Amino acid sequence: MIDLKTRKLNDDTHIAICMVAPALTGLFLFVALPFSLALILSFTNLRLGSPLPIQFWGFEQYRRIWLDPSFRHALLNNGLFALVVVPTQTILALGLALLLNRPLKGMAVFRTLFFMPVVFPMALVSVIWTIIYAPGADSMMNAFLKFMTLGLWQPRDFLHDPDLALPAVMLLSIWQGVGFQMVIILAGLQSIPTLLYEAAAIDGSNQWSQFRYITLPQLRNTLVFVGLVTTILSFRLFDSVRIMTGGGPGDATTTVMNEAIKAAFDQQKMAKGSAITVTFFLIVLIITLLQRVLVREERTIE
Amino acid sequence: MNNLESTQWISKRSNQQWLEKMASYLLLIFLAFLFTVPILFVVMGSLKPDELVLSEASTLKAFIPQQVSLQNYHDVFERVEFGRFFFNSLLINSTILVLGLIANSLAGYAFARLRWRGRSLLFVIVIALMILPFEAIAVPLFFQITLLGLRNTYIAQILPFVANAFSIYLFYTFFVDLPKELEEAAYIDGASTLQTFVEVIMPVSKPAFATVAILTFLTQWGSFLWSLMITIDEKVRPLPLAIATFQTLPPIQWGDIMSFGVMMVAPILAVFLLFQKWFVKGVASTGTKG
């Protein structure tokens, strides 16, 4: 039983520290500490297994990765990926959400079907699509494209073609991710007050105007959020690339994370891997800050 | 309008609505078909003899197996220790889940409802840590774990993922909205903070726990990068890494690979189909909190 006299009112410091201790220790040991370590290591030349002593290298590591053609190609790929996937996936998710946002029967079934790919582990998705993209006339993708182009399409080896490999990865990413964004946008759509639409209908506006002047503005924050998450995910791209193409052919599909893992894990170059990692984080930080700015603008207008 | 005209107008309108409805359904069915093609392909492929998986992929036969056979499933178990991979995934994920729910909810509650020294500063740090995606710390964490000699263990695959800044934040936003009366009543009854948390707060926080559980599950079950870096052999290897290695294990038989895939995803799919509403709610809430 509690001794009410000795328990100070309004100060739970003792018990609070106990309650946050497990989580905060975890965050410190496994998030804050590694990140600081990455920063420190990136200023050295550490390579595991090297007989040479570790030295302070200043910004040399960063200078080197910026000169590294593979790294630059990786940055380009991530950028291209984001440029294509973010709008495509968002628009597709918006379209699906709009289609599903009616009181028709069976909407839940469709929602489930569109969301299903999201629960598939990316490793499995990569394996499935590897066979869909198989070379030769027998492959599903080649046959499908031949059908869609009325016979004009020649079979290609998607995953080994420098021009088609990255788009191939983009497609499966979109397939896997659309459902997630769709659900978020759908929730956003359903939170728009219907009386806005009713008022607009009374004023005689058509569906397109309603969409442009009610739906889109109301969805602005949701869409910005979805765009941000997808952009960050574009830069985190690793699993599918590693499993399906190994970054190839050449550097056609390599990504920032792929380069980081190649350096740190395959080549044991901890310092180089750390430098790439820190660069990656800075990119994510900039994108996140941009989103905060965009969203805040909207709030001050309201 | 007179009566006849208004009746005609009404039936024209409902015809138009019916057409719109049909168009929507057709479009949805077409899109749903496109979406499920890869899934159907895998399921059907797992029931076919290996040679036919690829050769029939270009025709509609890809979706209709001539003879249904479970031979591939049998082969998978003969060639690799699927049971072990499954067990590893299950062990790692449930431990992360359970420990995570406890640790993160306690922290979220302390931030939300208790007053203590250091609360604001630590909270700001937690929020700041939220932007760090796992990839930003994978490399140095790998270095740390290797230094500690913990490569190829369960611990290395569980412990780093228990504490999660975003989960703490989710719990925080939920607890902050609870009515103060809950704790006041418990205080009057003489309950300690911990008792209050367990007996009063937790029972009314089921949605928060469900959301965090589902989001954690979604992110962790498919984890590939970390297990790739940390595991060395099959002992503690989880499913996503296992199927990637199985895909390159000679002889490469696509029927077997497909059945591996089906067995790997069936439990998650089952969980998803059972708890759909929670999944959807959980995912949607990331949008509102973001």
CATH class of the largest domain in chain B: Mainly Alpha
The greatest interface here is: A-B, 101 and 102 residues
The pLDDT mean of chain A sits at 87
| Rg of chain B | 26 Å
CATH topology of chain A: MetI-like fold
Number of helical segments with 4 or more residues of chain B: 15
Query: What's the level 1 CATH class of chain A?
Result: Mainly Alpha
Q: What name does CATH use for the topology of the largest domain in chain B?
A: MetI-like fold
Query: Which structural class do the helices and strands of chain A define?
Result: mainly alpha
Strand content of chain B: under 5%
Give the overall average pLDDT of chain B: 88
Task: Give a quick account of the main beta sheet of chain A: strands, pairing sense, barrel closure.
Answer: none
Low-confidence stretches of chain B: none
Low-confidence segments of chain A = none
CATH architecture of the largest domain in chain B: Orthogonal Bundle
Number of helices of chain A: 12
Question: What is the number of independent domains of chain B?
Answer: 2
CATH architecture verdict of chain A: Orthogonal Bundle
Number of strands of chain A: 0
Strand percentage of chain A: under 5%
Protein described:
The complex is a heterodimer of chains A (302) and B (290). With 302 residues, chain A is mainly alpha-helical. Chain A has twelve helices and no strands. Chain A is 70% helix and 0% strand. Chain A is globular, with a radius of gyration of 25 Å. Chain B has 290 residues and is an all-alpha fold. Chain B has two domains: 67 residues; 210 residues, MetI-like fold, CATH 1.10.3720.10. Chain B contains 15 helices and no strands. In chain B, α3 crosses α14 and α9 packs across α10.
